[in-house]
Amino acid sequence: MSLSIRPATWDSVSPEWTALLARARPPAGAFATPEFQSAWWDAFAAGPGADDCRHDLQAVRDGEELVGVLPLMRRDAAVHLIGDPDVCDYMDIVAAPGREAEMVGALLDHLDAGGATSLSLPGLPQGSATLETLPAAAAARGWDVQSEPEAVCPVLALAPDWDGYLSAIRTRHRREVRRKMRNLLDGGATVSLEAIDDPEELIGAMPEFLALMAASRGDKADFLTPRMAAFFQGLAQRMGPAGLLRLYFFHVDGKRAAAVLCFRPCGELQMYNSGYDPGLRELSVGLASKVFVVRDAIERGLARVDFLRGEEPYKFQLGAKPSPVTRLELRRAPADGGAA
User: What pLDDT is stored for residue 177 in this prediction?
Assistant: First the structure.
């Protein structure tokens, strides 16, 4: 039976999409969920002042079974994955296990049927089946395909216990982590980690997280425009009830000194953003908060922590290894071989 490609809405396809993700476990993690993508759409592509793009979400079915999702948007004949690399560390289509090649074919069929002249696929993570299968399939249909490195996401594979983790990281990094933690603790400070999973508590704590994020660095303060702040609130409202969000607060002497906002797809933690009180910078509370989050992830039995985009030194000090993110650009090759 051939696959059918049907327009969808968030509400119509979200339950099946979530069930499909539980089976597929795509490398994009939480960024592939309807909760994240609908929060992005509501903040940046809907309402006054939004980009002039059109929703092009497609459900791909074998009979009535959902076997994939094409989370697309378009501006005229230019098609793009839903999202923006500024806030979407990973992006990809979603396919049922074993149906990845068929989904790439469905994607190309949809582009042909809609008269698309270009397709932008930023944010493809290492291990993406789209990255592995689309270039050859698209070229065979006459598309010009360009692939380029876009970013690096440092990823930390977790040991089964804390001692195992410390022994696995480089000696000089281990010494540096221990030195900074000793400086914090030898000063007599009482420290603890608070983890918030409850949906209502997440929504209520988001303003304090955003305040710490803005206070920690000038570029983060500039980044947190009213629209961006609304996006973070939307993440809490949508991802919290789905069990996809965890907000950590690192306490020093009973005060919330730093915060780390994480996504929690199955079996891992994706460290999305963070902030800290600059008045406590000399105590290295920013780094300490992340060390405590890593230890918490180990204690919860998670397989890895993905620090997401950015090559800040602390990520590698904590033992992460670089994982490439790739961008694919497809352009319709002119029939006569001339300039497009």
Answer: 80
